[in-house]
Sequence to fold (447 residues):
Amino acid sequence: MASRINTLLRYGQERSPRYTSYPTAPHFHEGVNADVYGDWLDTLDRGKPISLYLHVPYCKSLCWYCGCNTRATTQDGPVEAYLKVLLQELTLVADRLPGRMTVSHLALGGGTPAILTPAQMDRLMSAIRERFDFVADAELAIEIDPRHFTRDDAQGLARNGFTRASTGVQSFDPAVQRAINRIQPYEVVEAAFNRLREAGVMKINADLLYGLPLQTEDSARASAEAAAALNPDRLAVFGYAHVPHMKSHQRLIKDEDLPAAKARLKQADAMEAALAACGYSLIGIDHYARPDDPMTRALETGTLRRNFQGYTTDKAETLIALGASAIGQTPQGYMQNKADVRSWMLDVQAGRLPVGKGVMVSREDAMRAVIIEQVMTYLSVDPEAVAACYGLPAPRADLEALTRSGVVTIESGRVIVNPAYRPLARLVAAAFDGYLASSAARHSVSV
Fold:
């Protein structure tokens, strides 16, 4: 055990991308603009379903740990103004498509997209259905804040066909909640779960964090057990990324209140053990799902994917992104809308696709992306086999140190991450990253 902890401590403080894309976001550039993205949309295959992602960058209050592109508002005006432009962007994008497209997966993220009133949600979903068709088993998912989620909100989601809701839990420890400016008793979260289920939104996810200020191993374990008692279908357990140089509000969190690296590891281990004891299957590096959940089945059948929304069962090759800062993907590459809300609005109101940057994906990029995705998703990859599918030589990867440390084994050319070291999968993936050595980007710690 001591050897494992020492190895995790040794490597876990190295910084690496989260690999929700490849090339990763720091390599996006302004060469991918509205014209380039418009051409990508023009040439999409009408016969293949797409995925939609809509970003709503507003919350009713700002949590100090948050790393998302969001802002706090207690007024209705900014959200209504944003929605009007979002509907305009929807029309702009739909008009550039080669025809009426079919959607297999819809996700609303933020911020807190459930900040939209039921009437606003009706308008948004009506507009989407006017321009797109949904496959019969499409998943419609949304993120909610249990602190501001009413019975009317739940019924509005059900009325508009939503099938899954992700709830921000983070921690049930009152001291931790005060330290991150998110007061959220267990009863509040339980009430949100009950409202969703009573309305007919039966698939519910819960998000937890470790490494938060004042968090302990015992409180992390207790939060995981309490979350599991609500019987969510899936849970995500992320390490808090303290990046005050990027998110100024994180300066409100005292450095001295943050757990040290060894304490973070023990918290993550405690939460993993608690969720495994409650019957959840481990998915990738930081997700958990019920054994009968589609995500668990996708892992078993080799169809699980990873994108900007994390692990997903969605098989669509194209992710159309709408809203300020939203990131999308087509077979040609990645794009990101302008992050500044005003700039995004001005472009849309002028009739321009509000693209800020992106990156075109080469054949080599696509090959490396598959290798990295398999490492992050299945903790295993045969680089030679993947490369053969692209008619390219397998990329060289320096895994010698990780192999000596027992993090990785190589069997008949297959790279296998030791399950005991799954938090280090990001470092294994980084060995196949052709851009990382020359990147000046500052990433979060690996564990």
Q: What stands out?
A: The longest strand covers residues 132-144.
